[in-house]
Design brief:
This protein is α/β, with parallel strands linked by helices. 45% of the residues lie in helices and 9% in strands. It is built from 13 helices and 5 strands. Strands 2-3-1-4-5 form a 5-stranded parallel beta sheet. The radius of gyration is 19 Å and the shape is globular. The N and C termini lie far apart (57 Å).
């Protein structure tokens, strides 16, 4: 048994080395699912993975353009197929949408890449995010409303430091951005500083899970893929909790996101309203 584990580790090491050595001969992603976190990106990734003309990264979240950008493009391209592959290739890292340095980094590194963004009711997104943090011992100790009220202090200056590249990673920015990640219009406008609107395909999460085949066909069209119906529609990485946020917490988030929600409707239309 021990011998098999050693052989397995050696095989994985050789595979990683082979992929790194051949990275210059590999494609850059044709598309990236950039977010938002807790909006259904795992399901979308799994459904796209089943298309015969799609090749996705072996692991879902590469985190190259946020956490590992300093490692260089070969560390990134090793995850994709060779240049002569006919398949559309891509990855999914939901933190990209929120991280302030990612749009500029991708603009400097990739050409012709398309972006898919899933947007969920920001209240439900925030609560799912909070529940995720509760599952990690010691990460979140406040109740939901108190965590929402503590967020500005917890995140104070972190976004600016990340954007100025004074720091490589911020645990608070990643963990406690419950309301902030729901400022969808603000984040979209950050991306539009570097890319045209037609580079993006926006999906309302609620519509995606209600009319999955219809929404997947829109994704296939955006990626210039043939329609594909042979997919297993089991939901992926679905959070399990029976309770719901208090009305006070709901009102707190809605009020804080009111102006952003109005701007989002101007950008994407009335269908992206959750009020």
């Amino acid at each position: 048994m021990k011998g098999l584990k050693i052989i397995g580790r050696l095989a994985n090491k050789l595979k990683r080395t082979w992929r790194l050595v051949t990275a210059p001969l590999r494609k850059s992603p044709d598309f990236i699912i950039i977010g938002a976190q807790k909006s259904g990106t795992s399901s979308l990734f799994t459904y796209l993975e089943q298309h015969p003309d799609v090749a996705l990264s072996e692991i879902k979240e590469l985190h190259y353009f946020d956490d590992h950008y300093h490692l260089g493009m070969n560390k990134y391209k090793r995850h994709f197929p060779f240049l002569w592959s006919h398949k559309k290739c891509g990855e999914a890292s939901p933190y990209y949408f929120f991280h302030p340095s990612v749009p500029k980094r991708i603009h400097q590194s990739l050409k012709g890449t398309k972006f898919i963004v899933m947007l969920r009711d920001p209240v439900k997104r925030a609560y799912s995010h909070y529940k995720h943090m509760l599952r990690y011992d010691g990460v979140e100790e406040l109740d939901f409303l108190d965590a929402l009220k503590a967020e500005p202090e917890r995140l104070l200056g972190e976004n600016e430091k990340l954007k100025a590249e004074e720091i490589q990673w911020s645990s608070n920015h990643t963990r406690f951005s419950y309301t902030s990640r729901g400022r969808y219009a603000e984040q979209i406008n950050e991306w539009l500083e570097f890319f045209e609107m037609d580079c993006f395909h926006f999906i309302k999460s609620e519509s995606f899970f209600k009319n999955t085949f219809q929404e997947m066909n829109k994704v296939y069209d955006f990626l210039e893929l043939e329609p594909f119906t042979g997919i297993n529609l089991a939901a992926q990485n679905k959070g399990k909790y029976e309770d719901a946020p208090s009305q006070e917490a709901i009102d707190f988030i809605r009020e804080n996101l009111k102006e952003d929600q109005e701007e989002l409707i101007k950008l994407l239309g009335k269908e992206f309203s959750w009020d």
